[in-house]
Amino acid sequence: MNIDYSICNALNYCSADIDSSLIIYDVECQWSISFLQRVAHSKGLSMPENMHIIPAVGKFHLSAHKLACFARYSLNFIQGAGQVDGEILETLWVPFNKISLTAQSMSQAHHQEVLDNYMQNSNWKKLVGISTSIDRFYNRV
Questions:
Q1: Cα separation of 7 and 43, whole Å?
Q2: Which residues does residue 57 pair with via DSSP β-bridges, in sequence order?
């Protein structure tokens, strides 16, 4: 139910002109089967009308699924998905593990502040380094 709530809120947020949404989830092949029925039967869940959901499984997790999932949920075959791996949260675990022991001994407010700052720093490094990445990409092409 938590993922249903999160997805519905994300889909309802500033989605007036969006008619389809790519949802990448580790167990999308199972979760998406009855998602629309769960939304229809719940008083607390809603989705924009005429929103088409395109289900996908991240590339790392897809290798552990049945072979039938590959053709249906692979990001390689979804038109418009681009070249994403769908595993962004997992790539943040290793850096977060470095500060987790320190953060455990903090108060809740300090713990949250440290994690937020760490994430903001990670995002800042990506933003600053994107020009170098793009330059490297176009020099190869």
A1: 15
A2: 74
- CA within 13 Å, CB half, 141: 6
Of 23, 78, 20, the closest CA to residue 51 belongs to 20
- The span from the CA of 107 to the CA of 19, in Å, is 43
Q: Which of 66, 88, 69 is nearest to 77 (CA)?
A: 69
Closest by Cα among 22, 13, 74 to 53: 22
Q: Model-level pTM?
A: 0.66
Q: Report d(CA 72, CA 67) in Å as an integer.
A: 9
- Neighbour tally for 62: CB within 10 Å: 22
Q: Given the structure tokens 């290793």, which residue do they identify? A: 94
Q: What are phi and psi of 22, to 5 degrees?
A: -85, 120
Q: Chunked in runs of 10, what are the mean pLDDT values of the chain (141 residues)?
A: 88 87 87 92 91 87 83 84 73 80 88 89 86 78 61
Q: Would you call 66 helix, strand, or coil by DSSP?
A: coil
| Cβ(52)–Cβ(21) below 8 Å | yes
